[in-house]
Amino acid sequence: MSDNVYGMKCNSCGTVSYPKHAVCPNCRNETFIDVVIGGEGKVLTFTDVYALAIEYETRYLRLAIVELDDGIRVTGQLLDGEPKLGMRVKTVLGTVRQSGETAIQGLQFVSA
Ligand SMILES: [Zn+2]
After folding, report:
1. How far is the CA of 29 from the centre of ligand 1 (A)?
2. How many CB atoms lie within 10 A of CB 67?
């Protein structure tokens, strides 16, 4: 298994997206290359989501939008218990939920 989280970079306009979409949110192009998402950034906003699918074992999921230092905005799970807007975080790859016996890996953020 790869230790990297991959986003997609639009072949047409260069916009990087994570999570992946079927079409580019900027120009609606449909071809992409994988790019590694990682490094550090700052929290732009976060929210606790309580209406989760049944396979989630946690009571809620704290999601954050983080602007990475290379300018890419990504959505992932924020693991910090006392988050603040603008706080510095780093990206990690972790288990965001279980699907049967399979651990679904995704982007997570921890305090930098
Ligand atoms: Zn595009």
Report:
1. 5
2. 14
